Amino acid sequence: MHLSDVFFQYLTTLAGIPPDHLKMLFTFVLAVPLARFYTMLPTPASRHIYGIVVSTFILTGIFSLYKGIVHVLASSLITYGLSWFLRNQGKVMPYSVFSFLMLHLTWNHINRQFWGVDPDSMEITGTQMVLVMKLSSYAWNVYDGAWEGSQQEQSEHQKRNKLEFVPDLLTFLGFVFYFPGLMVGPSMEFKDYVKFTDLSLFEGEADSNGKRARKSLDSIPNRKRTTLYRLIAGIAFFAVYGALGKKFAYHWTFDDSFAVLPFWKKFLYVQLA
To answer: Secondary structure of 192-209 in the HEC alphabet?
Structure first.
C-alpha cells in the first residue's frame, strides 16, 4: 500500500467519500499548478515528455493502475500501428481501429461487471472510454489526410483536422497521455493538441505576406479566472456528493423495498443516486 493510500483512507473516514473519488479530486486540483508549467517548457518535445511523465505518475503513483497503463499503451500503440500500415487502405483503417478499441474496452467492462471490481474504485475503463473517442477521431483524421477524392466532398471540420502524415511516436503518445484530459476527458482533436503544444494556437493574425507573428507567452490569454471557476465548481459538487452520497446510494435499487416504490419515486431516486 502506498503512503498516499493511507492518507486518502484517513480522509475517507472524515469526509465519507470513497478513497478513489478523493484521489480523483486531488488529481483535478494537482493538474492546475502542473499545467502552469506546461507552456513554460522550451520545446514541444519537452512538453510531450512532461505530459507523459505526469500521466504515468497519476496512473501508477496515485491510482496504482499498473495494469491499466499497459491497457492504455496497448490501445495506443496498436492504433498507431494500424494508422501507419493501413493508412492507404481506405476505410479499412479507421474501422479496424474503432473495432479494436471497442472490443478492448468491452472486455474490460465485462471484467469490471463480473469479476467483483468495487464499483467505487477507479480503474482504467474511464480512461479507455476517453481513448475510444480520441483515437477513433485520430484514425479518421489520418484517413481524411489520405483522401484521394475531391476536396469538396469533405466538410470544413474534416479539412481543418485531417492529417496528411502519421505523426512521430513521441507526439502521438503526448497526445494520448495529455494529463488534463487523461482520466475523464474531454476528448480533443489531434491537431488542436499539436497547435496548443507548439503554441501555434496563439499566433497572431497573418500579415500581407501571409506570415503570422508568434505571440509571446505573456500575451497568451489569461486563463486563471476560468480555471478558478471550474475548480471551485468541481470542489462544490464533490462536497455535495460527500454530504448526500450515502443518503442516495445506488445499492438500494437492488433492495426489495425499492421495488415496491411508485415509478416516479424510483425515477427521481435514480437521478439523484
So the answer is: HHHHHHCCHHHEEEECCC
Q: Which long-range contacts (CB under 8 A, 24 or more apart) does 49-55 make?
A: 49/170, 49/174, 51/174, 51/177, 51/178, 51/179, 52/173, 52/174, 52/177, 54/177, 54/179, 55/177, 55/178, 55/179, 55/182
**Mean pLDDT of all residues belonging to the chain:** 84
Contact between 188 and 131 (Cβ < 8 Å) = no
Q: Give the pLDDT confidence of 30-87 residue by residue, as tens digits.
A: 888 898 888 889 999 999 999 999 999 999 988 989 999 999 999 999 999 999 999 8
DSSP H or E stretch at residue 159: helix 156-161
First to last CA, the chain: 30
Single-letter residue type at 1: M
Mean pLDDT, range 91-117, rounded to an integer: 90
**Cell triple for 155:** 466538410
Q: Distance between CA atoms of 141 and 133, rounded to whole angstroms?
A: 12
What single DSSP character describes residue 89? S
